[in-house]
Structures are given as C-alpha cells and as structure tokens.
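Support case: user asked for a sample of complex input and structure output to validate their parser. Sending the pair below.
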Amino acid sequence: MTEPRFSARRRDDARAGDKRERILRAAVKVFARKGFYASRVSEIAKAAGVADGTIYLYFKSKDELLTSLFEDRITRLLEVLHREVEAVPSGPGRVRRVVELQLGLLEGERDLAEVITVNLRQSTRLLKQYATKRFTEYLDLMASVIADAQHAGELRADVSPRIVARAIFGALDGIALTWALGNAEPGGLTRAGTQLADVLLQGLLPRPTAA
Amino acid sequence: MTEPRFSARRRDDARAGDKRERILRAAVKVFARKGFYASRVSEIAKAAGVADGTIYLYFKSKDELLTSLFEDRITRLLEVLHREVEAVPSGPGRVRRVVELQLGLLEGERDLAEVITVNLRQSTRLLKQYATKRFTEYLDLMASVIADAQHAGELRADVSPRIVARAIFGALDGIALTWALGNAEPGGLTRAGTQLADVLLQGLLPRPTAA
Amino acid sequence: MTEPRFSARRRDDARAGDKRERILRAAVKVFARKGFYASRVSEIAKAAGVADGTIYLYFKSKDELLTSLFEDRITRLLEVLHREVEAVPSGPGRVRRVVELQLGLLEGERDLAEVITVNLRQSTRLLKQYATKRFTEYLDLMASVIADAQHAGELRADVSPRIVARAIFGALDGIALTWALGNAEPGGLTRAGTQLADVLLQGLLPRPTAA
Amino acid sequence: MTEPRFSARRRDDARAGDKRERILRAAVKVFARKGFYASRVSEIAKAAGVADGTIYLYFKSKDELLTSLFEDRITRLLEVLHREVEAVPSGPGRVRRVVELQLGLLEGERDLAEVITVNLRQSTRLLKQYATKRFTEYLDLMASVIADAQHAGELRADVSPRIVARAIFGALDGIALTWALGNAEPGGLTRAGTQLADVLLQGLLPRPTAA
DNA sequence: AATGAATGAGCGTTCATTCAT
DNA sequence: GATGAATGAACGCTCATTCAT
C-alpha cells in the first residue's frame, strides 16, 4: 500500500522482481521455440519488452539466464513434489502421484516442458556443472520414495532405487519430449502418465512369493 | 602382411577412403565432450587429422555433420535391433533383448551414448526435422514388438504400445544419460538394463486374472 | 551555438547520426583504391573509424554497402542534372551542360569517379540487378534531352536518342576512367569535357540541307 | 614435315596449345557470365573439360588467366585493326572503319564483349598494372589515326587526339556494355556503330570556314 | 602431362556484452 | 534503473593452389 514511490532501487520484489520474472517468462518461451543456442538475447529482450542491456541487470550472462531458469522452475517443481508426496501415505500411491503430477504440470506449461526436456541438454557443461545440483535433488526425492516403499515391503526390493528413479525420470522425460515435439494433444500427457504409472507399479510390486 | 611397399608416410593411405569415417569418429568424440554448439569445426578437423576444409568435402555443413552422424549410427543400431529381435521368439524375451542390447551397445561406446542422448537435443530444428525419420522408425520397431506380444496374449493389452515404447525409450535414454554424465562405471549400464527389463516385464505381464 | 554542453569527448556526437555517411565516405575511398572485391569490410570500418560490426548496423551486407553507395551518389547526381538541365533553354546547351557538369562533378571527387566507373562493373549481378534502376533513369534523362532537341529541330533527327545517350555516357565514362587511372591532372576532365561537347554538338547539328 | 610424333612435350601448338585455347575459351564464357571474382577456377576447368590442376600447367594463377585472356584477345583485335586501318586511305574512313569493325567483331562474340567491357574493370590492380600495356597501345592506334587525319586537314585540329580517342573508346565501350547487358538484339551493335560513326565524323569535320 | 583430393589462409558476418547517456 | 548503439572476438565456410599419384 505504502509502496515507496521513488526508492525504486531496493524492493527486488515489486517492480524489479516483476521485470526479472518477465524476462524469465520470455526466456522460457523463446528457448522453447528455438533452443538455447539458437535463441538471441535480443529476442528474449524483445519478448520481455525490455532493452537488451536490461537483461544484464538481472542476469550475469545468457548462460546464467538458462541456469536461473532451471533453478527457479525446478525449485518450484521440487517444492510441489515434496509437498504432494508427503500428503500421500502409501509408497505405490506416492510413485503414482509423482508421475501424474509431473506430467500434469508439464501439460499445463508446454513451453516449460520443452525447455526442461530439450534445453536441459543444450550444453554438457550446463548439465554437468549445474544440473547435478537440482537434478540430483530430484533423483534423490524419487529414489527415497522408492526406497521407503521398499523398506515398508510395498515395493519389490531387488532393484536399485536409484536405477528405478533414473528410469522413471527418463520415461517421463521421453514421454514429455515426444509429446512436446508431436501434436501435443490435450490430455495426452495425463493419459500417458496413468498408463506409465500402471505399468511401473505392477512392475514394482513385490513378487507374490517369488516362490 | 608386409604392408606398405613403396611409401613411407603412407600410413593412412590404406584407409584413404575412410576419411569420412575418421571425421565421423572425431565428431562423435568432440561433440560428446563439448556439445554440438560449443564444438568447433576446426577441433573436429584436428581430431580427425585433416584440414578444416576437408570436412566440407564430405559434409555440406557442421549441421549436416551431426545429422549424418545420427543417420549413420542410428541406422546401424536399427539394423542390429531388427536382426536381434527377429532371433528371439517370445514377446517378453524381445523386450528384454532390446533393452539389454541397446544399453550394452552404448556401454561400449560412451561417447556415442553421450552424443545420442545429449546432442540429439541440441537443436529443436534438428530434432523436429531429422529425428522424426529415424526416431520414428525406432519407436515403431519398439511399439510393434509390444503390440505383437499383446496380440499373442503375452503382455497386458490395456496400455498403448506407443506410450510404452516412448516410456521405454525414455527410460533407456535417462539411464544412459545419467550414466554417461556420471562416473560411467563399467557394467553399470548392463546391470541397470537387467533391472529395468525386470521391472518393465513384470509391469507388462497380463494381470493374473484381473479378477 | 555553444553546442556541446555536458560532454567532453563528444566530438563526434554532433554527427552521431552521420555515422552512415562516414561509412559511405570510407567505402568510396577504399573501393576506389582497391576495387570492391579486394576491399575488406574491416578496412572500410577502420577507415570510417568504427568497429567492423557497426557497418552491419547500417548496411545489410558488403554488397548492400556498394549498392547503397551508388543509390545515394547517383541519386544526388541525377538531382543535380535534372535541376541544371531545366535551367538551360536550348537543346544543344543542355547537352553541353550535362557533359560539362558530369565531368566537373567527378573532377571534384576522384574517388567517386573511380568507384562509379570501375566498381560499377565489379559484378554483373550488381549491374544487371541494381544498375538498371538508376542507370536507366540516367540514360532516360539523357535520351529525352536529345529527343526534345531533335523535335525542336535543334539536333539532327537521323540518329537514335538512346544510342546517342549510350554513346555519350560511354564517352564520359571512358574519359573519366582514363583520367582516374592516369595522373588525374587537375583541369583535365574539364578540358576534355569541353572538347567532347564541341565534337558531339557539331556532330549532332542538323545537317545544313544535306544538299 | 618431320613433325616428331611422340615428343609431346614441346610443340606448344598442337595438343598443348589446343588445351590452352580450350581453357581460354572456357574462361571467356564463364567470366562473361559471372564476372571475374564470382567465377570459380573449378567452373572454368569443368567448362574446359580439364581437371582443376591442369589450368595451373598453362597459367600461373587465376589472375594471370584473365591477364592472358586480354593479352590474347586484344592482341588479335589490334592486329585486325592495324591491318584494316592501313587498308583504308582517308582519315574519316579510317575512323569509321575502326568503329564499325570493333562493334562488328564484338557482335559476333558477345561473351568476349562482356569480358572486355565488364571484366576489364574487375580489379583496379589489373587495370593499372596490365591494361596500361595493351590498352595504351589501343588508344595510341586510335589517337594516331585521328592525329594523322588532322595533319592531313581531314579532321578538325582543335581537339586533342588523345581525348577523342578516349571518348571513342568509351562510346564504343558504353554501347557494347548496354548491348551486352540488355537483350543483345542482333544487328543492334552494327546499327549503333553506323550512327555513332555518323555523329563522330560530322563532329570531327573541319569547321567549314572557321573563319 | 593430367588429375582431383586435400589444404589452410582468409574473410564476411553474428551476437553476447558493455557503457555513455 | 533502463536504454540500445557500438563493439570486436570468434567462427563457419570458401576456394585458389598444391602435389602425390
């Protein structure tokens, strides 16, 4: 309300934060359409409605813009996942929730889906240096969901939680990729998610007796 | 046996015709290490032991070099897959074979794994224009293996073969990616493949009675 | 009057807008000295006192730089010619005026003379695509001066105005060429122009009676 | 008579000279179509039906190929001109002969016309270094025809033979240029030549009384 | 002599980044 | 903070020329 008018400088949240967010949103759109390397900083600036130089007031470089984008969006995704996972009691239910949630979110944001699945791999350097942080966090979440359920006897224990986590991530990624590159039909991701979860869960059930 | 007769430095003459192959091999190595965009044509030339211009005698552009790389390697992979799949009679056996085969092949060629999993996504254009051809062929193969087995009552029929195919591709891709980006421990891929196949196959079995 | 207020090194700010003109002038100089193809964009940039990239803010390509140069300079020449021609009442007077004017202008700008006479022919493409526009305009002006005078009975009517126009252009061009390539002695062009006009006008007079 | 058969090497005239000529002819064609700089040595080789490298057995460089072309063709033209000029007794007749002859020759060889008029100016360097030789010879011939006629009282003496020579060369060049760049209608050059000669000769006649 | 695959110097152009305003 | 004109390093590609055969 009191919104200091001219103290412009600080208050990274109101106007300034607004501009930062506008740039990020523009970046998602542009990166999604053309890929990181083929995207021009000036295009992003134009899409965001700011001057080229302005981008450098908020991000150190084009690289850091992509990095920040992941950081920002994946952090959000992780928060949602954490929250949702805790709200579900059973192990199998959690796995299903993660799968459906993730694809559901992406379905709502096709551009983001494309950036994450496609652009995450634009540079090996990015992947190796940055991605490890958040990406590992993501895999850890998934793996611990699996491991917990294994300990509880809800899921078969003869497979590595990490390998399963990677496979699930990959499966989701692959489905999102083909969906984003294809016609991206509405509901497609959700349906695919349900079927994937069905298969995975049946596949991960403890084998009756193995006897 | 006595090989070079009249010449001294003719070392590479024997394979003069495979200059194209030498360039492709160098490209795999360089692309894998730095990604498509960060790779310099001159680096590839140097790695191949040819002059910069020589590359353009065999490939129209840097883009076409990457494209040709996929074309070449994936064609090979498809040939192997086709052959191997036909050699296995049972549906589930085929799925397992594909999974193990693919990861096994990649394990022997880490660089290629990295190029395929990472660089395939370097440019949306590449993916959209080129990949559709061979990639679709790949998905088709996988989907028809699934579908055939479903018709034979060997696999559950309540999931879409295409979706499963995409998920399997994604799972393999994800596993290969994390493996290539990680420590790439020997045997890692093979082990992961076995476990993935275990899970997938159990997940894809027709449900006992569904009762 | 007091011009620059707050800045010190603003020496070029007064003419910041004429950066385009500075580049054009540098281009005339460099093209004249080395010809279009042998001229390097970087040389022009250096001669203009700007960075290489700056040139591309004003011109789409090196080709377009040459094209713009002609467009710009020849448009100016045409304006002068049109104005001057109209100021002279008699047909023969107009022909003489055009001849003297054109060579007089070039004499003041040796570089431009060289660019127009030499570089205009650097590329058949340029000539065929671009030159037709302005060049035709030039020939039209000349031809209509001739034709008008023919109708007025001031010049012999048994020669094609177009052919005469081409010949006059060529004669002027040839004289300018040899002058620019030679020692370019001062006054040389003017003197040549007078003599050329003398010969042409006598040659174009209606023949007494031919009787 | 003794014509050594297999001493292939020497005898620049038979086979070897043949190939040289074939290359020159191909060069005329290609240069005419695309201009010197835009022409590729490999194109010329292809047009001549020889390997790229072969060209370098006959010409030191691409530059020298153009140079040799002029040397060769203009030498021929000069020979014809000299011979023909001597065959005509009167001064005015000689001027007319030169004009008609030159355009007549070009009309038969449009490509050559284009090479001479357009490509002669491809590089200032070429013009300045080489052209001076033969070109001066050409202008000298023309100027001496004029001067002789002036001395004989056949042409007005108040104009510089050199300037007139340049103007005539230019007029011929201009006419050839527009003809070659235009539709190159058959007979066009000949007709233009006649008219040009008419105008020039009337313009160069000694003035009736001048008294 | 003839070939043509190979060479590599060289150039036009792009675009992330800077900085005077 | 915001701007966008200017910068200039960097790179893909071309093509005249060479040289082993």
